[in-house]
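Action item from last week, closing it out:
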Amino acid sequence: MGIRMSTLHTFDAQGLFGYGRKILDFGSSNLYGAPASEIADFVRKYNPKPRSDLESWADSLAFRSGTAEDGQARNEAFVGELLEAAGMIYDAIDIADGYKTTIVDLNSRSLPRRMRSYYDTVMNCGTSEHILNQYNTFKAVHDAAKVGGIMLHQVPSVGYTDHCYFCYTSRFFCDLAGYNHYAIEDLWYDGSVENEKLYDSIRQYQSIFPALKKRVEAVGSVEMDTKLDAMTIPTVSIGVIFRKQTRKPFSGTVEMSTSVGTIFLGSRGRGLSRWIRSDHGRLIINLPWF
């Protein structure tokens, strides 16, 4: 995953960083677009005793955060390098080796015990959407944060049809906060970064799955397929900052805004929700955590 220096400045203004803070990064994030002067200023802002070679080191990190002659990112600089130079404690978890990374496959493994309730700031900047086991992933974020700690998610919301498994909604994050008694410090949308085509990922798999080849061949002859293939979809991300307020164990969420019944738990039949009538005369359902 990757974070631009301009985005780090935004996170900085939202109180994610500080001297001595313990940071856990879900996915060892590359650093992009970082000018040497901004790197040095960031380090000096937090570290009262910055490294003696700060200027030359900042030049090196800035170079590695930039682009090569072919216009592609070098992918050689890491956010963790910058945060450590600024006097913070940095760890990452990922399925591939990276800077200060512990290998953890969140599809099947829990967060290591030594990392639980330890971190002041936990960052998920574009990792969770690539993992099938969503419950375990968001539980790991919850488990990593200490009470009073901050959890940041900046992930896809709209589009990203050829990028990941999941996109997220504000309803999901608001319910996640409610079920787990998080305070929401901020929630925002960001984009559009670029436009994508619906059928691009289908085309990549058509040689493997014959049914997809038939669907792609319908473009140009079937009106709906032709129309949808011509569409461009903007890519919009969603960001949210939670503050963990209790030691309550992690709770999964149940999306019930469109439910037409009442859900019960256990033999006692304790209702999770009740019907109320809205101002518009239609039935809506109470949030189970409200």
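Closing note: Residues 96 and 124 are 16 Å apart (CA to CA).
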